[in-house]
Amino acid sequence: GLTTTALVVSVQDAATQLDQLDSATAYIKQLKGRIDHLKRRKQAVFSGGTAGCSSSVSAGDYKAQTAALPVIEVRHQDGTLDVALASEAGRPFRLHQVIAVLEQEGAEVLSASFSVVGDKIFYTLHSQALCPRIGLEAGRAAHRLRGLAAAAAVSSSVLLT
User: Fold this and answer.
1) Which Gene Ontology molecular function entries are recorded, alphabetically (predicted)?
2) CA 62, 64, 67, 73: dihedral to nearest 10 degrees?
3) 28 to each of 23, 25, 35, 36, 141, how far by Cα in Å?
4) Residue-wise pLDDT tens digits, 49-105
């Protein structure tokens, strides 16, 4: 009787393991499908298409953003100032000028980076208030950065003519 019970238990264990393997396989296939979908969305975004837009940004908004480069986004929270910039590769921001504006507005730049994707350049700068008691003026910094972008657009169009 003991060997029959052991055999039944091992068959049940094998069936449970097969069920777990089937579940894991189905889950992996589901993840692969999601990854493929996200890759297609990413390619559509970088190629200028609208299929990859998230639900929070409509296709029209995305087209407007890509058509209206440069894009400047300034976020201010708890004494930190994060700046995200995007420009055409032919009309780049001068990173030293962006850093100078932030420093003049009372920020200490902690990190600055950029990446080139196709014909676009994306910049990210993280900074904090040099003097937390005085703080930062995010609106003024954003206004001055827009002025830099406008000056860059004018100077590059002069150079092109």
Assistant:
1) DNA-binding transcription factor activity, RNA polymerase II-specific; RNA polymerase II transcription regulatory region sequence-specific DNA binding
2) -80
3) 9, 5, 10, 12, 47
4) 443 333 333 334 444 444 578 888 999 888 899 999 998 888 888 889 999 999 998
Phi-psi region of 110 (alpha: psi -120 to 50; beta: other; left: phi over 0): alpha
Closest by alpha carbon to 83, among 128, 32, 31?
128
Report helix, strand or coil for 73: strand
Contact (CB, 8 A) for 127 and 107: yes
Averaged confidence pLDDT in the chain = 75
User: In whole angstroms, what is the distance from residue 26 CA to residue 93 CA?
Assistant: 47
Listed residue (72, 74, 70, 71) closest to 90, CA to CA:
70
